[in-house]
Amino acid sequence: MLRPGDAIVLCVLCLLCIGVLMVNSAGLSVGGEGPGVTFLSIVFSRSSVYMALAVAAMLAVSRMPLWWLAGRERGAVGLWIAAAALIGLCLLVYVPGVGREINGARRWIGLPFIGAGDLGFQPSEVAKWALILALALYAASQGAKLAQFRTGLTPALLAIGLVAGVIVLEDLGTATLIIATSTLMLLAAGARFAHFAMLAPIGLIVLVAAVITKPYRVRRLTTFLDPFEDPAGAGYHMIQSMVAVANGEIFGRGLGFGLQKFGYLPADRTDFLFAVLCEELGLAGAAVVIALYLGLLWAGWKILLRERLVFLRLVALGVIATVGLQALLNLAVVTGLGPTKGIALPLLSSGGTGWILTAASLGLLVAMDRRHQREELMEEAGVIQRSPAGGSGVTAGSPSRAPAAARSLPMPLVVTRTGSCDTMLQSRSPRARTARR
Amino acid sequence: MNDGADTMEAPLERISRLGRLLMLAMTAVFVVVLLRVAQLQAFPGDRLAAHVEDRIASRSEFAPRGDLLDRRGRLLAGTRVGRRVFVDPTRFPAPYDEHIVALAGAVGIDPDIVGTRILSRIAENERRRAEQRRLIQYVSIGPILSDAGAEHVRSLGIPGVHLERRSVRETPGEKLAATIVGKVGVDHDGLLGAERTLDSQMQARDGRLDYVHDARGRALWIEAGGYAAPKRGESVRLSVDLGLQQIAQEELMRGVVEADAAGGRLIMLDPMTGEVLAMVDLTRELSGLVKPGTEEAAEARRDNRRVRFDVMAPDPGRLVHPAMGRNRCVEDVYEPGSTFKAFMWATVTELELARPEEEINTEGGRWRTSYGRRIEDVVRRDKQTWADVLVNSSNIGMIKVCERLTPQQMQHAVRRFGFGARTGIDLPGEAVGLVTSPRNWNKFTHTSVSFGYEIAVTPIQMVRAFSAFARTGEMAGTLPNVRLTAPGPEERTELVHRVLPAWTANLTRETMRGVGANLDRRLMADNALDADPAYPLFGKSGTAKIPRSDGRGYFDQYFSSFIAGAPVRSPRIVVLVVIDDPGPALVRARRHYGSATAGPVVRRVVDRSLAYLGVAPEIVEPSGGTP
After folding, report:
1. Per the structure, how many domains does chain B have?
2. Which end of chain B is more exposed for a tag (fewer CB within 10 A), N or C?
3. Hey, is the C-beta of B366 within 8 angstroms of any chain A C-beta?
């Protein structure tokens, strides 16, 4: 039986492979001086390197000792420190010589020091994932206090607001995604709906302000309502994207034989890659991609359900929500169901930062699954026992009785009475050893 | 432990509950997205469908129309690629005057004309710009240029001045054979003449390259079936010979001018193959003509004043271009007059209703028919043999003997020689001719048709019918298929339906040899020939009054014609010359007859043409008379 963690790895690999193929296909150009797109050129392409890095990151994170993270729930101070660091990172895009402007947006930080002048990453991508961890750590440490507006919710809202506020200056899509995911996590962690309902008008005002301060955002919104009003201007992106989708029919024009990528469809390798995919692989290709996303999300959901720790369950929720919502936002734009936003399709749209960080974040889910597997094996062997309350925690037995198969897996976490956690392999954690003494 | 577990249970459960909602919602939206993809592909809607256009561009590869050649392969009409200047007024730079003068010099036309064309479009563009309308970006300038001219324009380097490729139909044969060659339209579709009738053979099929292109128009690839190779049109060899055409044109023009005629027609046919070797149709501008039916005509009639009427049917197209005029050799009919007697003579002889040596009472040249119609002969004799009736062109003798034919026999004779039916020559607009129907056939008709009146024929019908006498061997007495194209090497000449027994045809030919001899004798007596006749010919002259278009009788103006075949023993050509309306001076001097006006033309054409064809000259005995 395929474990959810394995399913995630499989889905990620499939999506990344499709991503590499489609990014290379979309990158076909006329009159280029190179030998064109060949099997070898794809293997040695930059997107293949990113794919390798993404897979490596996912595998590395999947072997990360989660007890190390799980034992570090922090209060508001920790959250603010994380927020301050992320804000600082995001503001680096405005530092001359560091930040890079591409297509009129300053979203990138260049990495010229590593020898490749055009390499860079989006700090908002880092912030998106880092904030999930920071928020989960904070929410898990606060517990029931989150229901209190002033002492529980406000510090989190301030941190989220500030980070999103900096990001929204250049990237409304990512900021919206961060706010949506964070809201979900806070609500799941114990924040009250009433508080959010109370804040909704303010959020709406902020959103409207963010839109009207940038004329192109207003244009995108009005264009979404009727893209055909200005088909050669504001509506061009959306119409050409829909044209690409419509051109595909059931099985598409064939891989590499799409036409829209040849100058008709802007951002064909990034935000509108799904349109290229629909044109070349048709409805069948679109269905495969959507099935892979659903498989990924539902496998993540299964892991979330097995997770017994609040912090990790929140992390799992954050990762699932981020991947799912980001994919949906992108697909809505590409298919004309939403206004145009600069938001990439996770694991498909070209982008090193996005692929590596998304894969790494999904690696957290894989890590959780590996630990669950060891718990199950050890439970079967009688090394540990489920708590009488119905399985929300386990109690320790003797690690020396663990079966051989379980020894290569991460140690199960032991939920303590205080709501924090510990591992069975106490020798690995000095803090746990001290607590035990 | 239980308390702690309960404490933990609440947030975990809360996360699960919210997560479950999120998962269901996201799954639903993913399904919606997939449905949206399907909807866009299956039912894109009219507005989007308008943008779902093929990214395919087409480039045509030029294939020239086939050449039109004469029977010896000389070019009559051919296609070449030329260049023409066009100007984009939106990019034409100031100072305008300087550039316009330079351009006009290179193109070789008046700077005022060039300036008017360009500056008017620039002014129009200013108006359109104000009204936000589409600007004019194409103004063609001047004719197709030579390569040197195109290079000159290119060397000027004036922005907005471009050269475009245009295919040009050049017609070197136009001067000699405009009505035969015809014309093509802008798209090189045959509109007139052989260009039209042979259009399907000569029509080229341009090649087509359909390629997928990117947004900047650059070619990406060619879809399967996206290339069709160009197919050059087939070159067609006409039966016409430019050398013979030139001879015919020169001699006919000379004959028309000498006769002060309004026009002339000439057809030269190879009687064995039916090929048209030359076909000329000339008209001449004359002054002082009176239009029938006008006040001036009525006044002249009141004053009993003789005037020369404009009897030629109007032909406005000819004024525009010779090829656009009617080809009167196939489109216009005339009453053949005495040239028609040959067919009646042969018919009577075939039916053995008269023998060549039988004496016919020709009444001293003046006679009234049984129903009182007065008939006169030019050569007035009391008696003549049936052979001399034909040689001397006796109307009285012909009428008297033709009365031995029943109306049905005469009608059948007219039809079997092909009168009243198209010959099927590959030229548009061929006339059928006029033959009185059996229902309207009466005594008067019977008499008239005997000497070539009350029947209208085209020159092409006439030469075809006359070929029955010119064909030799087993083909004597048969009609050829008239054709305008030269037969291929494998093509065999067809035997068409027989109209006469061979002996009758040969006998008629020999009898008409006397007509040729009389012609030569007269021409030599008049010193009307440049050289002695080199080839014996047989033929028949004819002179017919021109009927009024209102049907009220005839003008005192004539169609004078002569039809002949030569050499007599083995005829290579049949030549018909019709002189339209010889001048009044000739009429007054009674020298307007076919033998006097058209006869010399035929003789000269026969001699020059047979020499051109390399036929060995024979001794001609002008005193030949009847055989």
Report:
1. 2
2. N
3. no
